[in-house]
Amino acid sequence: MDAKKIIRLTFIVMTVILIDIAILSPGLLAIGFGENALKSATAAATLAGSAAIILYSSYTLLFKKEARIPILEVHTPEEFEIALKQFQKVKAVENDVSLALHQIDRIKKRHDTLLNVLNQRFVPGGLSFVKFADTTKNVENLFFTNIRGILTHLHIFDEREYNRVMTQNAASSSQVQLRKKEVFREYLFFIRSSLETNEEILLKLDKLILEVSRLDTVELKDMETMPCMQEIDTLIKQTRLYKS
User: pTM value?
Assistant: First the structure.
């Protein structure tokens, strides 16, 4: 159970209790039962309202499922993180979701590091700076395209059906059930292949940062022959060819 939600619920309950004490306590507002009809009705309404607030808060924080963010509304790294966190409790993919979140954190750090190195080595806005920056942007777009693909598969992943199908005895499974198992394996294979590609992207960005940090100056024509740039260009072209 989410510790933050427990803390929020505890805060709400304590606040309601303190308000009730202030309203009903003889030493404070002294609105209690038995003195007159109006005060009795007010006291009853206060307790009923308090109970309703606690019940509604308990349901909202502990039991109500959060509406999943539509994939088309996810654009920034922070939005991708929020969208992924909705699937952290899906047992079959919790390690994959955790890795995806870690990858996003790492690529944000790589982005900041590379931008800092480029600013130190090149004139911002110059041809060399722009070439490196554009290549990095293309790689980041590829990275988040993979994350978007993972989210698409997570949205249509039926955890309950997965658990039911995958726990069936293979000997007693029908052909339909066996095909269902294969479909679920393909879901997981896609997610893990995308994560593996992103690991490769992060590795190539590390190489790019290392090579750029070693440079004093570089001509645009020399940039094209840098091993890390060639590897990145190849990765981008291969992925575009695969997706077309």
Answer: 0.67
